Structure formats: C-alpha cells, structure tokens
Amino acid sequence: MAAQAPAEVDARSPENPRFAPFAAPLAAAACVALSTLGNWWQNPAAVPVADLPRLPLARALARWDAGWYGEIAQNGYWMEQGQQSPVAFFPLYPLAIRALAVAGANRWWAGIALTLAAGLAAAALFRRWAAERSGQAAAGVATCALVLYPFAFYLYGVVYSDALFLLLSVGAFLALERGRPLFAGLLGALATATRPVAPAVVLGLVVRSIERRLERKEKLRPADFLPALAVAGIAGYMLYLGLRFGDPLAFAHVQSAPGWDQPAGPRTWLKLAWFEMLFPRVDPWVALRLFGHALVTLAALAMAFPTKRLLGWGYAVYAATAVGVPALGSKDFQGMGRYVMAAFPIFLALGLLLRDRPRLRAGWLGLSAALLGLLAFAFGAGAYVS
C-alpha cells in the first residue's frame, strides 16, 4: 500500500528534497577524505600485493576482503578443502573489476572507481524509487538516512561488492514499480550474482509483483512471475561451482574453514561464539563492536514491521529476508552493519517515520553522520569495523 501524502520539510534542513541530490556526493567526499587521513595517520598494513598503489587513498580503501576480490579479478576461482578460498565471494563484482583491468586499469583503482560509481548511482536511484513510492519530502529524508548511515562508507570506494548489489536491487524494484517485470527479473539476476542473499531478491520481487496486481484488483497473469528470473544469477554461480569443484554450495560450505568458523548448524544459528567472545571478559572495543552489530541487526529486523505497514508486504519480505539470511549464517553478527544496507526499504520507512518529527530527524541524522565519519576514519586506519 502507498504511504500517506508527504508533509513539507523545512527548506533550510539538509534533508530537504532540493539538497538530496548532493547528499551522497558530499558524504562520499567526506568518507574518502577521512579514510585517507586515517590511513596516512596510522599507516596500517594493506593488502600484501605488489600492484597496490602506495598512495594512502588506495591503501585506505583496498583492505580486508578487498584482497579476495582482487584475487578473483586476477586469478579467478580456486578451492582447497578445509581452507578459506575465494568461492565464498560471488562473481559479478570481481568480474567487473577484471573487465576494467583487461582494459588497462590497475585492478585496485578499478575496484575503487567501480564501488564509488555504483554507490553514487545507487543513492540516486534510491531517491527516485523513494520519491515515486512516497513523495519528494520522504525521499529526501530517506536518502539522507541511507547515505549517512554509519556503514555507508562501504558505498564510497571501498573495494567491496555492497554498492553494486544495492544499485542492482534498487534498480530491480524500480523497474517492477514501473511495470517492467522482465527487466526487474534480469536486474534481480545480476543482483543474486553479486551477493548471497538470493532468497531476499527473488521472494521480494515476486511478492511485490503479486501484490501490485492484487492492489489493482486484477487476476494474476504469467507476467507477474517474471521477476522470479532473479534466481538465475545464483543458479548460474551454483552451476559453475558444481561443474568446476563438484560442490554447487561451495560458497556456503567454505564458511566453516578455520578463520571463518561459521558452519551451518545450531552453534552458528544460536550465536554461541558471540556469547563466548563477550563473556566473561573482553576488550571494551571488541564488546562495543559485537554489541553494535547485534543491535543494528535487531533494529533492522524490527523495521520490517513499519515497512510492511507503510510500503506493503513485498518490501517487508525483502527487507526481513535480506537481513535475516546473513544474520542466521553469522556466528557473531560481524558484518551485519553493512549487510543491513541491502535492506533499502527500511530506510524509506525510517524516512516516513522521521519526516514529520524535525527534532528527532535532526538528531538521528546528526548522530548517524558523526558515526559514519568515525567509522570511515577507523576503517582507513586499519580497524576491523565490519
């Protein structure tokens, strides 16, 4: 169901619709500068490869899992039983980096440019989708809530796949809302080839497609199920893994390798490792990180309820599944801060809730922006934040 007519937002406020187009570029510039400053200040070890530029900017943004994406882009996939291997990382993002590298770009600069371009495009597309769903005022607030989200620095040049996934998933739902179910399914397929949250994309698109038809009080048609083509992305990757390594679910099974230690089963599902790391004693900063990711996870799951009320079942199913699938598979909630960005409908629901509450809105966005800057600096300085 559509949200109620939007109220006006103060023209002087940063979440005003006229400011919204500039929110992501400004946030990106600030995050890149802070990450670079953090790297220059701390000079931490980066991805240990010869072709990584020595500039603090590159070393700030190409670290941690960036090494896996760079490995796939250069050497493809390999797998050894009982060891961490690149099959855990889905193929579209590193393939795009490889394409740019083949064209002559340094693979790390290619990854930085790809993430930055995808992140800015995702923010613009999100604003357009939000405006069509709930009006310009709510879209302005929601866009600021998304681009100032504390973990949004992963959209601004960090060599991770989150920005590309967000761009493709928002694009898929926007295409569906504009009555293009086949295009929605194709974009959805690209999204499920980017990150392992295929159930969210497929279920969300199909439920929303059916919901749109029922809202018009019309009978379902075969075209309403075309968004299910989104499963093709993960299906293609599973076919490749099966033919190459004899294990279509290698991306899941490799999670149990030493160092990752996240096998499917009650120990992971019940987060026993999370409790063991916290009790009886733990470094305060580690405790803050563990509690922070757990809190963000629970808050995002709770946002599925107002999302259903304000935006309908399709977006609620998508958001809950996009958060629930990685939360279930994580032993300690680590990484959930950035995974939440995939559940983009909750940011529009948040925008609708904050739209008519100026003091709460200003406080929320101000605190979020401060945390975003802090985490961007910490990431560039080599801290393990997500």
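Second entry:
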Amino acid sequence: MARPAVLIIDESDLFRDYLKNRLLRAGLAVEVAINGLDGLSKMRKEPPELIIMDYHLSRKTAQELLQEKAKNPNTADIPVMLTAHKLDKNRLLDLLPFNIKKIFMKPLKLDIFLQTVAEVTGVRFDMDKTPCIVEAHVNDNILFIELAMGLNRDKIDLLRFKIKELIDLYSIQKPKVILMLSDMELSFVDGANLELLLNTIIAAASAKSRSFKILTLSGFVQEFVAGRAEYAGVEVVKSLEYAIDGLIAEAATAADLPEDKAAIISEKVLNSSGAKRSETVTMRFDTEQARAQTSPASLNDLGRDLEIAAVDDDFVIQELIKTTFASLNAKVSTFNNGRVFLEATEQRSFDLVFLDLRMPQVNGFEVLSNLHARDLQIPIIVLSAITQREAVVKAYRAGVKSYLVKPLKPQQILTKTLEILKANF
C-alpha cells in the first residue's frame, strides 16, 4: 500500500528539514520545494495527497501558485495547509476560493499542526505529552536557553534546529551557552531526557565545555553532569552571576554587579512556578537567503504590515528606529514615555515594541508590569544604556528575554527583529 505523499513548500531549509524528518518518521512520503516555482513544478509532476506551503514565497507567489493549482484538474482538489507570519483580512479573503484546509499563523503550535496533518493523511503522530516550555535567545552573542516545567523529547528535537538558526542568524563563530532549567523537579528517571538535552545543545552549538554553563537549583543535575566524563568542563551553577562570568567580554568587577543578583535569578528565573506560562515552544527560522547576511530584504514579507512602537524619551533613538524600518515600509510610532504608550495600547495593537527602561513619568519596568497585568502578549525588546551584565539581570527580573544595549546600530536592530518575528514554531 502506497504511503500518503506530502509536498512541503517553504524557503527555510531548517524548517523543511525538520518537518520532512518528522513526517517521514510517521510513515509519510515527503517531497520538498525551495520556492513557489519549484513547488508548482513538483506539484504538477507528482500530485501529493497534501500540500504544506508558506504564504511568503519567491519566484512565484503563494497566490499565483494556488491559482495555477486550481486550474489543473489533477491538483485542484488537493488540500492545502498554509502557514504565514501575518495575514491581513483582505489577503485572507483572497484565499477563500482555494482548497485551504487550515491556515496556521506563526509561531506554530506543533501539536495542533500535526493533528491536522494526521486528519488529512490518516497517519498517527506519537507526541511526547510532557508539559514543557522552551525559549532560546541570543544576547551579547551568548545563547540563552531556558526550559521550564519538564523535559519533552519532541521539543528538545525542535531545539536543535532553533540553535542552528540562531547561530547562523548572528554569525556566531565561538558559541557560548547558558542553559537555565527552571520550575522543575528532576530525578534519576529524567536521566535519559537530560542526556538528550545536553547532547543536543553541545552538538547543535558546537560549544566547548568551558563555554557551556547550566543554571539550576537541581542537585540531581549537578550530580549527573559531575558523574560523566563527556561533560567535563561544563559548569553547573545556582547564580547567573557565575553563569555569565567569563562569557560576556566586559571589564567589570564583582563590585560593579548588583548585590542581589543571585537572589534575583534564583527567585525570578529558576523558581518561576508563579509566572503565567503557556506550553509552547518558540522556534524561529529565517529563509536561506538571510543566512549569510541579515538585510532589510529578509523582513520584506513582514514589513508592510508591521506596527512597531518605539518607547524611549531619547529623540535620537526614536529616529534611529524609524530610519531602520523606513525601507521596509513598516509603521513606527514613537512615544516619549510609558504613560503615553500604555494609553495607546487601549486603542491600538502592536507587533513589536522597543522599550527603554529608564523614562520619566512611567518607566519601562512599570510598562512591563502593566502589560502583564492586562495579559497583553506583545513581543518586547528592551533598550538599555546600563552595562551588559546589569542588562541581563534587569531584563530577566522584568520577565523579558531579549534586550539591546545602547548605543544601537541598525544592523543590531534588524537582526534582533528577525529573531523575534521570523518565527515558524
């Protein structure tokens, strides 16, 4: 009996690689296409039972591809699962005439996504149901990875691709990693999954042992790492002060650091059960064209629809952010203080916020607290003129994982924006 065939049309080689392997493991036959024109050719040559395609395609747009598909009696009835970073109502209406099974906005929720694949193809996907949150970001060329609640093998598998994407996006030559394990109790029964996690990070990041720090309160993790020769040199610590010591190239002494740093991290990061969390994994993949060099073109498929807020009392910073996004035709609204910005959020929504921490009237920390209380989930990049080490602590204390240290450069702004918004998972 022939296996159901799926055609994946996406310009992210990492996403194609992950999804192809995942569908093959489930018993499906899989073909991949690298752009719209390639997808049209392969769709005509071997019509599949299901097409998974991204809306943002080159060589032939998704609209053109769907129109060609509808004209061909051999392909017209093939169901389509469409993914997109953002679609306005007019574009959604344009898609109604086509056989779209479901539209998934990125970042994807993988369990729901695979459930739809299963419904169309009749295959079964075995998913690890362990509650787990995975986040990964780059700050100061250090890869910060946080896992909370538990160790989920499917999400660890996804993490491998996320690490590779971040290293390529930031062109990191010698990766340095801080792994934070929070809000979880681990024991010997978790040994296999912990080993998978550590091996995945080491292999994907190609990080040397001395450049890999684990921040955790778990005595089991300490014993597990110390008892294995392959992890010799990997440090397990309980304070971010020691985790970042030697990783951030900055001439700072211990006297320059906040005295309550260890307490802040232990309470706010590692013991995070009180924080509001959702069981999602954030993964971001850029297109092949963006891998060698980050450029404004990498955001062109997002720019025209982007609503960006620059919340900073420094006019120079406001103008820098406006100028950086001008070529993308993104709309940048500026606010001199947090109070005016919060008033604006009562009437408007934003796709991304650049937020200064030190402002008159209502500062950045008060803004973050207000947004959290109102359950407004807006991607935020903190802007700070304080030192790098202080920025790490203050950003994490406020619950923000991405920050930029002033003075800013346009390339830094665009790269961080790509990390936050170009998300597939």
